[in-house]
DNA sequence: TACGTTTGATCGCAATCGAG
DNA sequence: CTCGATTGCGATCAAACGTA
């Protein structure tokens, strides 16, 4: 089989899949995020990632974006015979940035492709791909670094939670924000925060409820709705289990002193 | 990663309390 | 009495966990 070179925008909703051919993704315009079996990173113009065959990868485009995709079957001429060494590039997923000469080569490749990409022969695609892979291999070397597990972007998750505080937030929603599967996200999240995603969201809700209690005389029923509790009783239950006193008692104690257990939010369950 | 099981939080309702 | 808030309880279901 031959290599295929194409340009596409990536969906702005998180997608995931795996395929039986290797792939190289290079950013041309805008930004995208990838998570390839635990290795995550962002792609912008002139940077890219290597996706080995049969590796499940999550990806999401951000706004208007365009990516150059090289689909490379293991038996493509650009990875076999004289070029067999280049297949080492796909031993593990990795991210890379193009240096100046490779940027020029990419410009050349795009020019070759421009006009009528369908007219580009398979042989021409293979030649262009082989040259690119050869240059990339020379720069990255054959032995990829040990995959480094990316830290979750908690600021981004906080922002997402705060924007959707009044609505139900499922772990799947947060996992999608992090471009991870739900199970992978759960374990990574607990490693990093010591809390389950659900506990973390509830803590944010209670913190928001505290702020509203401090700010004025908004009825508890309204505070419950604004902070994502389905019912005033749900807020009362959660508040009491976290702080040891009901919301109204907390409000009465203001501004003199917060509940003694205000700093025990981490123990909220 | 998928799947089955267990756990425990939430929901929704009703009863009750307390302040005005 | 009214209204806002608290508490209790059973049903439900999502999250967590264990295993393959």
Automatic annotation (TrEMBL):
SMART domains: HTH_ARAC. The lineage of its organism: Bacteria, Pseudomonadati, Pseudomonadota, Gammaproteobacteria, Oceanospirillales. The keyword S-adenosyl-L-methionine does not apply. Pfam families: AraC_binding, HTH_18. Residues 155-253 form the HTH araC/xylS-type domain. It comes from the Bacteria. InterPro entries: AraC-bd, AraC_XylS_family_regulators, Homeodomain-like_sf, HTH_AraC, HTH_AraC-typ_CS, RmlC-like_jellyroll, RmlC_Cupin_sf. This is Helix-turn-helix transcriptional regulator. GO terms for molecular function: DNA-binding transcription factor activity; sequence-specific DNA binding. Residues 249-269 are annotated as: Disordered. Keywords: DNA-binding, Transcription, Transcription regulation.
